[in-house]
Amino acid sequence: SQRLDPILTGLFYQSVQAASDYKGLTAAPPKAIDGYTGQYLALSSRPRLSLDQTDDAFGSGQLNALGLNDTSMPTGISFETKTVSLDRYARNVFVNARDVAQYQAGSGFDLRQPALDALAHKILGVHAHKVWRGIYSAPASYGDGSGSGAGSHVVDGPDLNTTSNPIIDSILTGCQEIYDAEGRYPNFAFVNPVVGNLLRQNDEVRNRPNQGGSDNTLATSDALGAFFNQMFGVQLVVVPATFKDTDGTTGRFLGDHISLAFLDGGTASPTFAATFVEQGTDVTGDGATLAGIREETIEDPQGVKIIADCMYKAQVENSGAGYMIKDVTS
């Protein structure tokens, strides 16, 4: 038998929240489409404030009041319709009926909870792989927004193992490159803990006076995050999650790179990456489930299979809205 289970879905949601260190929905915010294959609007022009008087930006003809019934479209902004097709991902775990009879009845502990914890990690692991290795760690994801500039927003960074190597100019240059391509400055920077610790020890970062006039000790991630916000206007996200490769070795997402991105879940914003989901999917914050949960009774061996089934597509949306500073630990 098969049925959607709201209690299991609630427990799964709690498991996902506990495992939200992967930060995948921060780096690729959700956008809803209607159906498995759907269309959405995307900006095809990047509006910018112009101070060039020669283009008549402030000419008298631009300042006339319009009538209340005027239906003319604004100039300088245009949209294009894009189509996306979702991929299906499903994972399951098995709970043995004998274990339930032996342990759950006496303890009152729901043995489905650890099973759901494992299931949450499986589902989030797939999404993390798509976002961090398929998008953010791939130099070809970063471009100038023209469609033919793949990899043009990728530069070699300084080796931060040498604390005297400067890094601030590299980040400021990346911020300006994103603005030049998309008309938006980045609002996020992503690093893993190794790069974060090296940034915290960097001489240029430590010796930059903070708002109180003293040097930045940056002893905590919060202090480093405050520095990034004050200096670059971005939210620093340290991604602690790790992965195990096909050969069994463990690695860290984002490698030895610093990634800058403009990200927005708005329908037509020039966001760097997005996770497209079905309309109505629970996608609230980092604790989004991405999945519907159901049970299936198994007769032999006797027990319950708990299945998480989801449809989404994680992909680059505007390559010009991202910038990679690579190889900063080598």
What integer is the average pLDDT?
Answer: 80
Distance between the amino and carboxyl termini: 55 Å
Enumerate how many helices there are, as a single number.
8
- Total number of β-strand segments? 15
Helix content: 25-40%
Report the major sheet.
6 strands, mixed
Dominant shape: globular
Rg, nearest Å: 24 Å
Unreliable segments (pLDDT under 50, ≥5 consecutive)? 284-288
Polypeptide structure, described:
- The structure is a single chain.
- Strand 13 and strand 14 (303-316) form a beta hairpin.
- It is globular and about 70 Å long.
- It has helices at residues 6-18, 24-27, 97-107, 112-136, 168-182, 193-201, 203-206, 221-232, and strands spanning 2-4, 30-33, 37-43, 79-85, 87-96, 154-156, 188-191, 235-238, 242-244, 250-252, 258-261, 273-278, 292-298, 303-316, 322-326.
- Helix 1 (6-18) crosses helix 4.
- Strands 1, 2, 5, 12, 13 and 14 form a 6-stranded mixed beta sheet that branches. Strands 6-15-11-7-8 form a 5-stranded mixed beta sheet. The chain has a two-stranded antiparallel ribbon with strand order 3-4.
- It has 8 helices and 15 strands.
- The chain is 28% helix and 25% strand.
- By secondary structure, it is of the alpha+beta class.
